[in-house]
Amino acid sequence: MIRTALARPTSKLPRAGTTIFTVMSKLAQECGAINLSQGFPDFPIDPKLSDLVNAAMKAGHNQYAPMPGLPALREAIASKVERLYGFNYDPDTEVTVTAGGTQAIFTALGAVVQSGDEVIIVDPAYDCYAPTVELFGGVPVHVRLGNDMKFDTDAVKAAINPRTRMLMINTPHNPAGTILRDADMRRIAEMLRGTDIILLSDEVYEHLVFDGERHASAINYPELRERAFVIFSFGKVFHATGWKMGYALAPKELMAEFRKVHQFNVFSVNTPIQHALAAYMREPTNYEDVPAFYQAKRDRFAAGMMNSRFNLLLCEGSYFQTADYSAISNEGDLDFATRVTKEFGVATIPLSPFYKDPPTDLRLLRFCFAKQDATLDAAIEKLCRI
Ligand code: GLN
Q: What is the pLDDT of residues 111-147, one digit of tens each?
């Protein structure tokens, strides 16, 4: 029998393995470890919300939703956004419901990145950014967060050149847990002024901003908003990451291009859940307590970890706490995170996968504190034994 050559594609992402979130959650499961790695809550959603989904299914809302999203949901999104950030996006042309934040990012990049376009990414960066840029033929240009994991406007400005097509920002920041403030946003507006650079502002943790700070959304800044895709997530606000529901906002011209890709990517997203969210998000009390709720969890985790040998970094937002373990070990972070999972029973996320070139002395882990108090307490007890 003659064997023909096997069809083996040339990898479009030769350097990509399996995402660290999948790797660590799997390891946590195999070891029976407490999972503070992949970011997701371990507590239930509001029963009112699941009742709404159930009701929508029973009412027969089980077929395709309109491609850009259910009109009622797009209207609810537009009114919430106006209430919070003072600008009214047109629900017909400037709001699109997506299958989560990652799909929105993928679609936005797919809509605008052309071969050879440079996209500025600030490391540590959420792990889908650079591979997605590469998939569309773009060139990721990596700069770094500055001291204390804060945004370094000078570093970003120095990376801008005529080939720059897009700047990607993320506030509150995953994995760092820091936020952008008014002064940062003003400086970003200044550096983009007079260029045709598109901004992608990943704001999926918009409600997880602590200590009375206000979320500085790109939407608050007309000069930014006019050139921006702003990306949000329902999963983070309503504790339902597994629903994979989010949305993108952008001016009409940008959104028209976004939708051209979206329609061939997912076409439309889960209909009954869109019905449920449209009703649920109209009530501000359903999201107003989120900052205080997570701030209490951050504080509980930090107080417990005072008795550990980890040194916690600043956490201004998101549901992630980063911590330095250099007082404990000199191992690389992947090895250390693996050992802590296997030997001490707590899974975390090492930070090196969020860098193109991780600093050699990087000794940081990320802990997700979106957990019941009992889970946090049990994890703290284990972590304090290290
Ligand atoms: N956003 C989640 C995190 O940072 C992970 C989502 C995923 O696993 N793709 O942990």
A: 999 999 999 999 999 999 999 999 999 999 999 999 9
Centre of ligand 1 to C-alpha 38, Å, is 5
Tell me the per-residue pLDDT of 142-199, one tens digit each, with 9 for 90 and over: 999 999 999 999 999 999 999 999 999 999 999 999 999 999 999 999 999 999 999 9
For ligand 1, whether the C-beta of 26 sits within 6 Å is no
User: CA angle, corner 214, sides to 369 and 157, nearest 5?
Assistant: 95
CA-nearest residue, atom 2 of ligand 1: 39
Q: Determine the distance separating the centroid of ligand 1 and the alpha carbon of 74, expressed in angstroms.
A: 25
Q: What is the SS3 assignment for 30-45? A: HHCCEECCCCCCCCCC
Q: Identify the structural domains of the chain with CATH numbers, from first to last.
A: 20-39+288-383 (3.90.1150.10), 61-282 (3.40.640.10)
For CA atoms 268, 272, 278, 281, give the dihedral sign.
Answer: negative
pTM recorded for the entire structure:
0.97
Q: Mutate which of 23, 29, 40, 320 to test ligand 1's pocket (most atoms within 8 Å of Cβ)?
A: 40
